Amino acid sequence: MNAVRRIRLIAVSALALAAMLCLGTPDSQAAQATAKLVQDDCVKCHTQPPADVASAGAGHKKITCFDCHAGHRPQSKNNIPQCSQCHSGKKHYELANCMGCHTNPHTPLNIVLSGNITDPCLTCHSQQITQLKEFKSKHTNLYCSTCHNVHGKIPACTQCHKPHYAEQTQADCKKCHKAHMPKNVVYGKEVPNKDCGACHKKAVDLLSASTAKHKSLACVYCHQEKHKMVPTCQSCHGTPHPAPMMAKFGTCGDCHSIAHDLNRWSAPAKGEPAKAAPAKDKKKK
Ligand code: HEC
Ligand code: HEC
Ligand code: HEC
Ligand code: HEC
Ligand code: HEC
Ligand code: HEC
Ligand code: HEC
Ligand code: HEC
Ligand code: HEC
Ligand code: HEC
Ligand code: HEC
Ligand code: HEC
Predict the structure, then answer these.
(1) Taking the CB of residue 259, how many other CB atoms lie within 10 A of it?
(2) Residue range 27-40, pLDDT digits in tens
(3) If you measure from the C-alpha of residue 92 to the centroid of ligand 4, how many angstroms do you get, rounded to a whole number?
(4) Which ligand is nearest to the CA of 108?
(5) What is the reported pLDDT for 22?
(6) How many helices (H) and strands (E) does the chain have?
(7) Cβ(60) – ligand 2 distance below 6 Å
(8) Is 97 left (phi over 0), alpha (psi -120 to 50) or beta?
(9) How far apart are CA 25 and CA 22, in angstroms?
(10) Helix-strand-coil split of the chain, %, nearest 5
(11) Can you give the pLDDT at residue 267?
């Protein structure tokens, strides 16, 4: 028996003695100590657990020390409860090592996530893994806890990634990306041309230099909703010219050039089909 333990046992005996003297009963010391130990006594020897329960006990405030610690040494040695005594019937309660995350049972919602965690999260959240697997990307192979290292915390994309251009902020990222399916780029009507221009400088330059009416249209007015969507001219203009005329020409671009650089009437006249322009454009992106 080591010294610390001996001193502790002496303390317990002292309690028993004190209890006996106070109450002046003739019964055996040990039995008396156990019989008379009440909730208010615990704090006399254990200051931390009662303080923890009081400050952050959450649901465990609803129960007493005794509900979990049914007995006390030296009478009873087995007074540390299993979580499963009270928590059962959910997938979450079948996990191993409850106290690996709920590190202090007296403050059960102070949760520490250490190491690489995915499967335990799935006992409560299913939508995110479905998205990650359905829309495969390099995020699919990360652990949930690589991004959410504190429960409930949402990381900034810019914590791990550079924006596409210097002034772009975290708030912009979600206009186009969702964390659990980052490659599925979808966006609304509010995206400004400069957000596209970060990668499509040529399109922006052509459009802003153009004098045709497309100049005033937003990229996303034509390239709607999903990245790489390309509209047909007819989807907006229907059939503006008679069919016999169109029959002689392959595409609208034969005369009008490309959407970003409309009506460069001179180009086809030089004997160089305007179609060549978008082809070149495409390669350079
Ligand atoms: C007179 C002081 C005293 C009081 C009052 C007291 N304890 Fe203890 N308690 C001790 C000591 C000393 C130990 C350490 C025993 C050991 O390590 O062998 C201990 C150990 C414990 C343990 C750990 C047991 C283990 O197996 O590790 C728990 C749990 C505990 N007490 C709960 C309580 C609760 C609940 C109360 C109030 C109902 C309480 N104690 C009241 C002195 C006290
Ligand atoms: C929900 C159940 C639960 C409640 C309620 C609870 N405890 Fe505990 N307590 C535990 C568990 C589980 C452990 C073991 C912790 C460990 O192994 O680290 C423990 C450990 C202890 C210990 C020994 C380790 C330490 O932290 O010092 C003491 C003393 C203790 N509790 C006292 C109390 C007191 C006093 C109360 C009432 C204010 C109380 N407990 C309420 C579950 C509970
Ligand atoms: C003696 C019964 C008992 C034991 C043992 C017990 N709990 Fe609880 N626990 C409760 C009760 C009662 C609640 C409150 C449930 C409610 O509010 O509906 C609770 C709530 C919780 C909560 C949610 C707190 C909140 O406010 O939302 C967590 C987390 C928790 N327990 C974890 C644990 C862990 C981990 C263990 C094992 C170390 C454990 N419990 C052992 C009875 C117990
Ligand atoms: C990987 C970490 C982790 C492990 C392991 C873990 N939990 Fe949890 N637990 C959590 C998180 C995160 C929450 C959500 C807390 C919140 O709602 O803020 C939670 C919530 C709870 C709750 C309250 C909500 C509910 O659904 O009832 C209880 C009770 C609970 N856990 C008990 C347990 C028990 C019992 C074990 C062991 C069988 C365990 N936990 C293992 C992380 C964990
Ligand atoms: C016991 C069930 C439980 C477990 C296990 C759990 N969570 Fe939660 N989680 C919750 C609850 C409940 C909320 C609060 C939901 C709300 O506010 O709509 C939450 C909230 C979150 C949020 C914030 C949601 C928001 O809208 O701000 C994130 C992120 C999160 N959890 C990630 C995780 C990760 C990652 C894990 C695994 C390490 C995990 N959770 C484990 C129950 C759990
Ligand atoms: C904790 C760090 C972290 C956070 C936070 C994070 N990512 Fe990532 N992301 C990564 C890693 C690591 C990769 C893989 C890089 C590699 O292998 O080149 C990646 C890859 C990507 C990819 C390329 C996917 C592929 O399969 O090619 C995109 C797009 C992306 N992230 C967007 C985002 C967005 C948008 C956010 C915010 C919603 C975000 N990321 C938040 C770490 C993170
Ligand atoms: C690359 C970093 C990253 C990874 C990996 C990741 N998340 Fe997220 N999570 C985020 C970001 C950022 C948000 C904020 C919403 C957004 O940007 O789409 C978020 C939001 C959430 C939310 C809030 C509700 C929602 O869906 O928007 C929950 C819950 C969540 N994540 C759980 C998980 C779980 C569970 C896993 C593992 C299966 C996981 N996350 C993996 C970064 C990540
Ligand atoms: C206007 C829409 C849009 C916005 C806003 C946006 N992205 Fe992107 N992002 C994209 C597109 C499109 C891709 C390329 C997808 C592909 O290659 O198919 C991409 C690719 C990525 C990649 C993969 C690597 C790369 O550079 O190709 C990362 C990482 C990324 N974005 C992070 C971010 C972050 C961080 C933000 C916010 C600062 C952000 N994105 C804002 C549309 C956007
Ligand atoms: C992070 C860089 C990035 C951003 C931001 C970005 N794109 Fe792209 N975009 C690309 C890449 C890479 C390609 C593929 C180029 C290739 O295949 O040669 C592409 C291709 C396209 C294509 C051509 C599809 C095809 O079939 O030829 C269109 C249209 C397009 N993007 C429109 C947009 C619009 C509109 C925006 C703004 C909402 C935008 N992009 C934002 C990187 C980006
Ligand atoms: C998403 C709808 C949309 C698509 C797709 C579209 N346009 Fe337009 N176009 C417009 C709008 C809006 C105007 C301006 C009408 C006005 O102000 O009267 C316009 C104007 C024009 C004009 C008149 C230009 C001027 O300056 O007078 C021509 C020619 C034209 N479009 C040709 C085309 C061709 C060719 C294509 C395909 C390469 C195309 N458009 C694709 C919406 C579209
Ligand atoms: C009036 C509708 C319209 C507008 C506005 C528009 N585009 Fe386009 N875009 C098209 C059409 C139609 C095509 C297919 C090629 C063609 O026929 O002109 C195209 C092709 C593309 C391509 C693939 C070929 C290439 O030129 O690289 C990219 C990338 C692209 N657009 C990006 C953008 C960006 C970025 C903006 C905003 C600066 C934008 N577009 C504005 C209609 C439009
Ligand atoms: C043979 C050359 C040629 C072809 C092919 C052609 N157009 Fe035109 N388009 C013209 C000319 C010339 C005008 C009249 C220009 C003017 O009035 O300034 C015109 C005018 C237009 C206008 C403007 C009408 C207005 O009211 O201002 C639109 C829109 C248009 N064309 C769309 C298309 C579309 C869509 C296609 C493909 C289906 C197409 N064009 C094919 C030569 C052509």
Answers:
(1) 22
(2) 444 444 445 688 89
(3) 6
(4) 3
(5) 39
(6) 17, 0
(7) yes
(8) left
(9) 8
(10) 50, 0, 45
(11) 53
